[in-house]
Hints:
Low-confidence stretches: 1-14
CATH superfamily: P-loop containing nucleotide triphosphate hydrolases
Number of helices: 7
Order of helices and strands: HEHEHEHEHHEHEE
Strand order of the largest sheet: 3-2-4-5-1-6-7
Mean pLDDT: 89
Largest sheet: 7 strands, mixed
Shape: globular
Helix content: 40-55%
Amino acid sequence: MNRAFVKKNEHFSAMNSFTLVTGGSRSGKSAFAQKLAEDIDAPRLFLATCPRLDPEMDERIRRHCREREGHGWQTMEEPLRIIERLEQMPAGSTVLIDCLTLWVSNLMHEAEQAGGAVSEEQIASLAAQLGAAARRHQGRVLAVTNEVGLGIVPDNAAARRFRDLAGRCNQATAALADEVYLVCSGIPLRLK
């Protein structure tokens, strides 16, 4: 993390605002968002959307929890109902949602299990609701997401659908965010 970058942008801690942090896999986006949150003197709530699917994922979750130990984080797991959970967060808290891409995947899976599908319009609506809830929160909200549409067009319909839904979620969320960062190779670039 570039300390000089964070130091120059200390206004983060003084605002009630909504920040979206995006980037590729292992780009450093979560570490950047976590550092921004830890520079704010407020109770910290980590809203994890990752479902516990297998032993490897369980180990990843344990590792990430260990990385937050000693930094004042309370972790809550919520794979689907993040809007409702965000609306229940105490005023004055800093909330980090990680990540919206898994949230989209979880919503797709839930719809498929019920014999349906999630449309781009539904994802855009849910993302708008999330953005509105983030802006209503009396504190700082940061959300992490993946930029999944920069590579090769996926070879199957389900993967293309996921890519499209994630892109739609990112667009709708970014439109409502006060700040948007793209992180590449551990270096944040402020887009908005």
